[in-house]
Amino acid sequence: MKKERTLVVVKPDGVQRSLIGEIIKRFERSGLKLAGMKMMVADPAFIEKHYTIDPEWRRITGEKTIKGYRDKGQTPPSEDPHEITGIILGHLKTFMTSGPVVAMVWEGVHAVKIVRKLTGSTEPLSSDVGTIRGDYVIDSYQLADIDKRAIRNLLHASGTVDDAHKEIELWFKKEELIDYKLVQDKVLYDVNLDGILE
Ligand code: GDP
Ligand code: MG
C-alpha cells in the first residue's frame, strides 16, 4: 500500500509553458517520492499504445464525450463512441508528439488518487482552483473542438492503479526506476514517531 506507484507525463504544453519544475514541486511537496524521470519525444504509435492501454478507454471516453455534449445541450459530432474516440486519439497523437514530454513515476500511499487530486479534472475550464490544471492553464473542450485539436491540460496522470501498472511498464524499463528511502518516509509512514526528542 505504501509503495503504490503512478505515472505522470508533463505534456508538450507543460514543457513549453516552463511548468516542469512547478509540476514536480506540487507532487514533491505532497510527500510522494520520485521513483524515476526522463525526457523524451514520443512517436504516434507509442501515444496510441499509451491511451489504449485500457481496452475500455475507447468506449468509456467516447461515451463520456457524447454525454458531455448532451449535458451542454449540444449535438455530438457522432453517435458512435468509437468514432468520437478515433477523432480524440488523432488529436492526442498530434499534440503529444509535437515536442518533448517529461515522464515520471511518483510513489507513496494512495499515489494514484493523490496525484489525480493534485492534477485536477480533465477540462481546465472546470478543474478546481488549487489543482495544477485549475491554476495554470485555460482551455475548454469547446475551444479544442472548434480548433480541431487536443485539449491542452499540461499533464497526464494515471487514472487507476491497474492503468498505472500498465503505463509505467510502457514508459519505463525496470532499471530506470529506483528503490530508495527518503528521510521523510519515517514521518509519513512510521507507526511510532519515536527518536525525535533527544
Ligand atoms: P485525463 O485522464 O484527465 O487526461 O482524461 P481521460 O483519460 O478521460 O482522457 C484522456 C485525454 O483525452 C484528455 O486529456 C483529453 O485530451 C482527451 N479527452 C477526454 N475526454 C474528452 C472530451 O470529452 N472531449 C475532448 N475533446 N477530448 C477529451
Ligand atoms: Mg486518463
From TrEMBL:
Pfam family, any one: NDK
Domain Nucleoside diphosphate kinase-like: start-end pairs: 3-179
EC number, UniProt record: 2.7.4.6
GO terms for MF: nucleoside diphosphate kinase activity
Keywords tagged on the record: Kinase, Transferase
EC top class, as a word: transferase
Cofactor(s) needed: Mg(2+)
InterPro entries found in the cross-reference section: NDK-like_dom (IPR034907), NDK-like_dom_sf (IPR036850)
Domain of life the protein comes from: Bacteria
Entries under Gene3D superfamilies matching the protein: Nucleoside diphosphate kinase-like domain
Similarity remark: Belongs to the NDK family.
PANTHER family assigned to the protein according to its UniProt record, in alphabetical order: NUCLEOSIDE DIPHOSPHATE KINASE (PTHR11349)
Name by which UniProt lists this protein: nucleoside-diphosphate kinase
Annotated organism of origin: Candidatus Wolfebacteria bacterium RIFOXYD1_FULL_48_65
